[in-house]
Structures are given as C-alpha cells and as structure tokens.
Amino acid sequence: MKKLLILGGSRYIIPIIETAHRLGIYVVTCDYLPDNYAHKYSDEYCNVSVIDKEAVLNAAIRLKADGIISFACDPGVVSAAYVAEKLGLPFQGSYESVRILQDKGLFRKFLADNGFNTPKAKRYTRSQISEAQNDIDIFRWPVIVKPVDSAGSKGVTRVDSPENLATAIDKAIAGSLCGAFIIEEFLTFNGYHSSTDPFTVDGELKFITFSDQLFDKGADNPYTPSGIKWPSTMKPEHQQTLTAEIQRLMRLLNMKTGIYNIETCVSSDEKPYIMEVSPRGGGCRIAELEDIAYGVNLVENEIRKAVGMPLLPIEPHECEGSWSEMVLHLNAENPEVFKRLTIDPEIMRKYVVKLDFWLKEGDEIRPFTGANSTLGIVFLRADSRNELDDVLSRVNEWFSIEVNSGNTYWGGGGIRPIYLFCGE
User: Fold this and answer.
1) Topology adopted by domain 322-410
2) Residues 336 and 365 sit within 8 Å (Cβ to Cβ)
3) CA dihedral 185, 281, 200, 353 (to 10 degrees)
C-alpha cells in the first residue's frame, strides 16, 4: 500500500484524504495541532510542526512515506519540497526553486531580474526596520506591507502615508514565520484579481484557467478572498499573455509535475502581473470546483503524482455555464454563537452544487480574518453569468444565519451583513 504524508490538518484537505483512500493509499496527516479536523479522517496522525523541515524529514523517513504534499497548507510547502528532494520523491520543483516561490521578497526579485511585470518591492528583515523606514522615497505611495511567508493575506496592510508605516511593519513581522517582510507599490486592478489552480506535467502547462476573485471590504481582513467566479471576465489577450509568462516562469525555475495556486491581475494601465505562485493546491477547494466545472482531474492527479502513480489524462472542456464559490463568513463586531442556517430550498435545488457548512448549534462564530474563521463553502452553478450574478445579488433574500443573541445576519443586509462575497 502506498503511503502519503499530507502536511496540515484543515478541513480543506478532507477531499484530498477521501480521494487518496479511494485510490487505496494510506494517509498520514501531519502538524502540531492534534485537534485539527482533518486528522479524524486520516489513517494516522503525526505530531510535528510543518515548518520544521528536519523534523518533517525524520517523520517521512520513519513512516516510509512514498509521497509528500502540502495541499492547502502554505506554511508546509518548503518543508515538503525539502523532504521530497532529500528522499527522491516527486514534487513540483527543487527545494531552491520552491524556496524562491514561497518567499515574496525572493519571488519579486526573481521576477524583476527576469523581465516579468512586477510591482517595485524590497525585502527587509526584522533587523532592517530602520532601513525600511528610511526608504520611503523609493516607493510610489500607497504601498502594501506583507510578511514574506504568509498566506491568506495574514499580516497584510495597505499604507497610504509614511506615518502609518511603522504599525504596518509590526503587523507584518508578527505574521511572518521568519520575521521578514516586503514593502511593494500598490497596484490598482483593472477588473478582478484572479486565483486558480493550474497543473503542469514535466514543466508544461496542461491546465490553466483564470477567475474573478472577490474580496469583502467589510471584513476584519479585507484582503482575504471571500469568493470566486468562473469563467473569468479578464480580456482574452491578457489571459494569453499571462499563460505565456507563467509557462516561461515554469521553465526558468525548472518546474516538474503538479498543481499550483497562482494569483494574477491586470493593473489599471493594462499590464498583466503574476502576483503569487505556490506549488500546492489552493485553499477554499478551488481545485475541487475546477474538477467539476472543467472536467479535469486535478486533485486525483496531484495525489497520483505524489506517490508515483500514472497520471490520468488532463483534457479539460470549456467551462459549461457560470460557477461561483462563496466562502461563508460573518462580519460580526463581536463573537456570536451559532443557532440556525437558512437557505431557500428553491435556490438549493436550482443553483447549489455543493454546500459544506461546518458549524453546529452552540459553536462560536469569530470575525472573518482568514481561512481558519470560515464557516463553510458553497459551490453554485447557473446557465449564464447574468443569471449567476442575479442570484448572488439577491443573496439577502435566500440566505441567513441566526445566532443566540437573537440577531439574524442576512446574506446582503440586515443587522450586520454576512457578506458571502464582495460587491461588484
């Protein structure tokens, strides 16, 4: 029996575990939080921090793992690449290439050095705070301050003037595993940001798509994605340019086979940008929805790749209809206690493809600051984009959450809106 080591234990990897079990693979989940939800579904749990690459290596040796992945777990990607390289296991790229992709400062420098469109950015460590504060004149303001090694927009702040820079740096350092951060010039988007999960085979893109990514401006963390729509409204010429540039990046870094979470955008001056490339499946079940909407086998092929099984053919069809993933969350001013979820049965019957809601009565609801405060996910499908947008625009008519305080939080109104997705 093949043995797969999965770094992380969030709910987002349950479909990964289930797919691996269907293939007859023994699954070990690994992190330092034994109460994480996915550990209930794996065959074995290993209590090791995913950011301690030597400890993960020792665990993989002891377990005699045939493969390792860090699906929907950004902090574990570098460790997974390190272990794969040390043990000769399949992975998307070398440890050095993955280290570049996973460090926002190193990645921005690599893009700039190789002629890609990239916002002006500079990397700093905790000991270089004074240098960062003295560099205010080298940037066009506003800027974004980010940890170099966090996902889900944790520790990210837009800074409009230099007097607010120090606070943003402190927040970024607090959100960084290594204590480093970048300052980069803020890009104004033309249209939507895109986040999708492409797949390469021997470094060649075999599946790539683009999306319309949505953000909730009213959330505690307004840079955490709160929804996605497919297919993208990005201009075809920009999609073509980005596809070519992503392929060029894969060749420069000598990438191999596997899934990626890739974020792109087009700026207000019509320049396309590659913003993030992580050799892992994205959170929020992106690959799972792409499997359904485009008829591909991303999740299963990532597992097959990891343990050395033959891949299934990757032959995507056109996206049939319009699709959306809504990240369910609550914008309460204070923690609330969940009582009841209500969705109109006609909407459920006609548009909802999948609903995973993770709360039971009496559970606490926390403000939306990232994936760990998500209440669940909904996949929806409509025959056209206009129809889908119409359904989402009326979410306050068909979706609500009641809490024990007596408040009802509607999809797009009421006492405090739940904001399933960002407005157009």
Assistant:
1) D-amino Acid Aminotransferase; Chain A, domain 1 (3.30.470)
2) yes
3) -110
Asked if 296 and 207 touch (Cβ cutoff 8 Å), the reply is: yes
Residues of the chain with CATH 3.40.50.20: 3-89
| Residues β-bridged to residue 179 | none
pLDDT tens profile 171-203: 999 989 899 999 999 999 899 999 999 999 999
Query: Is the pTM higher than 0.85?
Result: yes
**Which stretches of 114-220 are DSSP H helices?**
129-134, 165-174
369 vs 114: CA distance, rounded Å: 34
Do 260 and 268 contact (CB within 8 A), yes or no? no
CATH superfamily of 189-211+233-307: ATP-grasp fold, B domain (3.30.470.20)
Residue 278 main-chain phi, psi, to 5 deg? -125, 130
- Whose tokens are 């293939």? That residue is 23
- Just give the CATH number of 3-89: 3.40.50.20
* DSSP-derived pairing of the beta strands 352-357 and 376-382: antiparallel
End-to-end distance of the chain based on CA atoms, in angstroms?
Answer: 49
Cis link prior to 231 (omega < 30° from 0)? yes
Distance CA 325, CA 328 (A): 9
Residue 218 burial (C-beta neighbours within 10 Å; 0-12, 13-18, 19+) = middle
Query: 120-185 maps to which CATH number?
Result: 3.30.1490.20
Which DSSP letter does residue 162 get? Answer: G
What does the pLDDT look like over 68-91, one tens digit per residue?
Answer: 999 999 999 999 999 999 999 999
